[in-house]
UniProtKB/TrEMBL annotation:
Name the UniProt record assigns to this protein: 2-hydroxychromene-2-carboxylate isomerase
Enzyme Commission number(s) of this protein: 5.99.1.4
UniProt GO molecular function: 2-hydroxychromene-2-carboxylate isomerase activity; glutathione peroxidase activity; glutathione transferase activity
Domain DSBA-like thioredoxin, first and last residues per copy: 5-193
Catalysed transformations (reactions): 2-hydroxychromene-2-carboxylate = (3E)-4-(2-hydroxyphenyl)-2-oxobut-3-enoate
Pfam families: DSBA
UniProt record similarity statement: Belongs to the GST superfamily. NadH family.
UniProt xrefs under SUPFAM superfamilies: Thioredoxin-like
Catalytic residues of the enzyme: 13 (nucleophile)
Keyword Isomerase (UniProt): yes
Record bears the keyword Isomerase: yes
An example Gene Ontology biological process: naphthalene catabolic process
CDD domains cross-referenced by the UniProt entry: DsbA_HCCA_Iso
Length: 200
């Protein structure tokens, strides 16, 4: 089997939300699995000198028009959540904890968190909302709540973010295909062609 596609995403990224619905059908066309990597973009932005697009003049306004248009195109439920963006530390830690135990369930959980935020407008920056989504996904919310207080999980999350930075990940969504990087949901057609042709 070919190596999986590595999918890096931040839960505050609306483009990551769109990519989360598109990456698996693309991978299946090429007989690939997808490895989901929740990350925190704050350290990457600090390293690269970038700032959240929502707060940037011109770009922020464009994003406000572009994301709903993308979601209409792909028939994805969408609402601009308030507040936006949010700190997603609890969501990332929770997803990593689930993924260490059941990767397939972690993917379902990740999709549910994205849907809760960008589909339903729920503030997943709040730990209580993360735990509520976990319960709705069939997870043991009490066990997860306890795990979120564990220093070992905090260290595990920090190590995952550091590992992504070392690989050159700086945005969301970000993909690695056989060590070839692709940044942005708009690069999915290019990645599709790359896989079909074996690169160029």
């Amino acid at each position: 089997m070919p190596e999986p596609i590595d999918f890096y995403f931040d839960y505050s990224s609306p483009y990551g939300y769109v990519a989360a619905h598109l990456i698996e059908p693309l991978a299946q066309r090429h007989i690939r699995e997808v490895t989901w990597h929740p990350i925190l973009l704050g350290p990457a932005m600090k390293l690269s000198g970038n700032t959240p697009m929502a707060g940037q003049p011109l770009k922020g306004a464009y994003m406000r028009q572009d994301v709903p248009r993308l979601c209409r195109r792909y028939r994805l439920p969408f609402t601009w959540p308030e507040p936006f963006p949010v700190a997603t530390v609890a969501a990332v830690r929770a997803t990593i904890w689930v993924g260490d135990r059941d990767p397939a369930l972690a993917v379902r959980f990740a999709k549910a968190l994205y849907r809760a935020y960008f589909g339903d407008g729920r503030n997943i920056g709040e730990t209580e909302q993360v735990l509520a989504v976990a319960a709705e996904t069939g997870l043991d919310a009490a066990a997860l709540a306890a795990a979120l207080q564990d220093p070992a999980l905090k260290d595990r999350t920090r190590a995952a973010v550091d590992a992504a930075l070392k690989l050159g990940v700086f945005g969301s969504p970000f993909f690695l295909v056989d060590e070839e990087p692709f940044w942005g949901v708009d690069r999915l057609p290019l990645m599709d062609e790359w896989l079909a042709r074996g690169g160029w």
